[in-house]
Amino acid sequence: MDEGVLSQISNNPLFEPVVKLLRQLGIIGMLGGIPGLLLLAFFAALILVAVYDMFQTKHAIRRNFPILGIFRYVLETIGPELRQYIFTDDRGDRPIPRYLRTWVYASAKNQLATVPFGTRKDLNKPGTILLRHSAFPSLEEKITADRIVVGERTKSPYSASLFNVSAMSFGSLGRNAVLTLSMGAREAGCFLDTGEGGLSKYHLQGGADICWQLGTAKFGARTPAGDFDPALFRDKAAHPRIKMVEVKLSQGAKPGGGGILPAEKVTAEIAEARGVPARETCHSPSRHKEWDSVKGLLDWMARLRELCGKPVGVKFAVGRPGFVDDLCEEMRGSGILLDFLTVDGAEGGTGAAPLGMTDYLGYPAHDAIMMVDNSLRRVGLREQIRVIASGKIFTGAQLAIAIALGADMANSARGFMLSMGCIHALRCNTNHCPAGVATHNPWLQRGLIPEVKAPRVASYQRAVMEEFNRVLHACGYEKSGQLSRGDVMQVVSYNCIRGMDEVVPYPGARVAAGAPAA
């Protein structure tokens, strides 16, 4: 290092001890010029950080262990990534085990998605769900082209796929992710639920069939004061790509609570889609203010259907079983029948939710589906109202189980997120999604190319349907409607397995000895 430069640096009281230390270690003699200056700057930076650590009062670890303590926070930050790739087994990770993520990734890329050497599942664990296969399945696996007609009583009924893209808002997801899902859903022939964040231009640009969701804040169909705007709703719902309208009462991950989108996430495009001011915190109420009873709900839904002429339904997570019974009884009594009910399980996902809500509120999906199915059967409306299952459905076998338990079709959100590149980094609530899915950061979004990822979304949907067909034929059937609760088994305890029609009987069915009544 040039002695003139070194002399000037040594005269600085801050760097003088660093220079002396480097002289004693012989490092200055080994390096000269720019490398020497860089090394000097590095050591000076370390000293500055160490001094700061020793005198700051916010972090005890850094105060007691200068510099070294920083690594504790670094490891804490990347903890989810380390756990999912290094420390957890294939089935132990949550909320989505690695084996499921691997299957989705392989299916989306049209790669080999089979598994070797037998199941890794503990088949004796109480609560385990299995399917009963047939002793004489068909010799030919015919492609099941089941599509379920929704809204037969409306002016514009819709023929829906058995497996569709569940509600994910533009706001929770970035524009490239929404466009990717729309393009992929169009290619796969399934519908895309907008989520409660409103109908954006990216939903429509991709060309998918759309289920437009109205949440408690009526985003996209509200006045500047926040009230429902019938004329605006009618005009938007008239778009030919909108096939159904879904009113969200609650969702599995945070039932009974409203949402908040921070001001920094309310970009101009999101503000346009939601009909709210840009760069202001966006709130969703905990419930719809237009009604406070089941009768009021149905009256309002009838008004919506009159405005749009398309199938309308509600989405909810089951909390109190009495609500489901009241809804079904009121539909029978009033004659106002919803076209579909989307039943979300407590295991449903979201970008951000309070821990208490996501861990402790609501019924799991399987129980909720059977509860709704039974209530509709008791009032004689099961054949007239479609049931859509939601909540941790990733594979064709899981789709078959949901349909057997009482659903007509199913939606998946996180499965389709994984198909377009989500890496389960658990950063959805930070706006720092490394895969560019759940973020509005322009740099991070640029990594997600809709033209590249949309075919993977479609491939994943087709893979789920192909597996569903295999399972359906293994059970001895050719149509999804032939599946029933009796095709599902549950491990009740060790060496005790019962059919789900025994565990939760159909209304009026004889209860087997020892089985609980519905």
Give a quick set of tags describing it.
518 residues, TIM Barrel, eight-stranded parallel sheet, three-stranded antiparallel sheet, 21 helices
Walk me through the structure:
The protein has about 525 residues and is an alpha/beta fold. It has 21 helices and 15 strands. An eight-stranded parallel sheet has the order 4-13-12-11-10-7-6-5. Strand 10 (about 310-315), helix 14 (about 320-335) and strand 11 (about 340-345) form a beta-alpha-beta unit. The radius of gyration is 28 Å and the shape is globular. It starts with a helix and ends in a 15-residue tail after the last helix. Residues about 510-518 have low confidence and may be disordered.
Q: How many domains make up the coordinates? A: 2
Number of strands: 15
- Strand coverage percent: 5-15%
Estimated radius of gyration: 28 Å
Output mean pLDDT.
85
Strand order of the largest sheet: 4-13-12-11-10-7-6-5
CATH superfamily of the largest domain: Aldolase class I
**Gap between N and C termini:** 84 Å
CATH topology of the largest domain: TIM Barrel
By oligomeric state, this entry counts as: single chain
The shape, in one word, is: globular
Class from helix and strand fractions:
alpha/beta
Number of helices: 21
CATH class of the largest domain: Alpha Beta
Helix content: 40-55%
> Which CATH architecture of the largest domain would you pick?
Alpha-Beta Barrel
The low-pLDDT segments are 512-518
Largest sheet: 8 strands, parallel
